[in-house]
Amino acid sequence: MVFCGVFSKPQLLAALARVEKMAAEEFSRQQQNVVGNSPWECLDYGDCVIHVMSMEQREYYDVESFYATAEEVELPFPQEPLPKELQPPKWTREQAGAL
Questions:
Q1: Taking the CB of the first residue and of the last residue of the chain, which one, N or C, has fewer CB atoms within 10 A?
Q2: What would the 3-class secondary structure string for the chain be?
Q3: What pLDDT does residue 14 have?
Q4: What is the CATH number of domain 1-68?
Q5: Please, what are the averages of pLDDT over each run of 10 residues along the chain (99 residues)?
């Protein structure tokens, strides 16, 4: 997960466009959501979610503070399959869009 703060709507749109372009060109990845018209936008690439938000939103929600009090969970090495209870659901785009 990546968090990015911007100072204006044009800067937010430019950051979104740059991330989308880089993901497509360098990693052949397309986002899995539709960008709206909000001061907080998310680009969801499945294994990586990028949050681009106005500085006001970033200060108000203070998402990073959650990590200071979060419980640390040990995960298996990447070579090992995740236990079934930790595996993400296998949704189709249609199912995800209906949420």
A1: C
A2: CEEEEECCHHHHHHHHHHHHHHHHHHHCCCCCCCCCCCCEEEEECCCCEEEEEEHHHHHHHCCCHHHHHCCCCCCCCCCCCCCHHHCCCCCCHHHHHCC
A3: 92
A4: 3.30.460.10
A5: 91 91 85 74 86 93 85 75 72 59
